[in-house]
Amino acid sequence: MSTKERNLSIGTVARLVGISPHALRVWESRYKVNLSHRAENGRRIYDAGSVERLKLIKRALDLGYVVSEVIHLSMTELSSFTYAQEEPFGIDKHKRGVLIFGDHLSHLLFQSRVSFYYHSVNKLSEVAEFCSHSSAFVSALVMEFSDINDEIEELLYSIFITMKGKPVVIYSPNLEPERHQRLVNAGIQVEMADVDEGVLSKLQALLAEKTDIQRNKHKPSFLDHQQIQALLNHQSSVQCQCPQHLADLYMSIDKFIQYNAYCERKSPKDTAIHSYLKEVLYDLRSRLVSATYDVAAMDGIVLNEDR
To answer: Which residues are CB-neighbours of 12 under 8 A, at least 6 positions away?
Structure first.
């Protein structure tokens, strides 16, 4: 795709965002901030990420904030900042949180009338930060890469964990087979293709399907004997014994829960103390089980949730 197709003029952006060209020029000069790039002829041009940033700034201004308060905020801060002023779980909450990374993908969605709400970021570090601190606003994550190296792969696993089972879709045409298999085994949807207009309908269907699955998905709060044995006997692809350690930790907590139930009957004071401990231990076990399912999914361990 050519540079001309990927970038917009200041007049076009002004009409799209609702901010005058004069204001855009003044903001860059007054607040020493780069909201645009310069073309070879010296004119200001705006990519998809810049347009999305300006939309968030405009939204903050509409909420009553002044330019100086928001102009230097990052995309992550602007997103959380402006979303926080609204009801994050409105009627269309499953359409309001598709996070997009990739200039080509962002531009294509920007030009198309997709049926889902999306938000674009233009830095991978911001994707990780947004998912970590504002994952409640993200119902799915779609990313585009020309290639993926070891550092990006590591970050993708971290992002995937913070998404807590919500769909993560990657478009990358140049993946090595081994890396592709590792990502797929971890539960990440990988499409080894360039993003083009034909992808849009497929993407919409994929997100609708995965969001519906996620909506009805519920992790158990305990592990049975067969699942524990699967963890203990698994030959991990991770260079450690985390699945086995998780199983050991689960069994230790389970034993303590049984011991706590015995102590609860000893005296009125014991009843008060151990009733409190029971609540804490059940919550701890539930959180551990949730984390265990996430690790198991990434390491290829099948734990049937429909038992």
So the answer is: none
**What are the residue ranges in the chain where pLDDT is below 50?**
1-5, 82-96, 211-217, 306-307
Residues 141 and 212 in one domain: yes
Tokens describing residue 55: 């939309």
Number of domains in the chain: 3
Angle subtended at Cα 213 by Cα 208 and Cα 216, rounded to the nearest 5 degrees: 125
pTM of the model: 0.51
Report the CATH number at residue 171. Answer: 3.40.50.2300
pLDDT at 38: 87
**Cα end-to-end span (Å), the chain:** 50
pLDDT digits (tens, 9 = 90+) for 12-70: 899 888 899 999 999 998 988 888 888 888 889 988 778 888 988 888 888 777 888 88
Quick check: is 66 in a domain? Answer: yes
Phi, psi dihedrals of residue 169, rounded to the nearest 5°: -120, 135
Give the CA distances from residue 155 to residues 14, 125, 159, 161, in Å, rounded to whole numbers and listed in that order. Answer: 35, 9, 6, 10
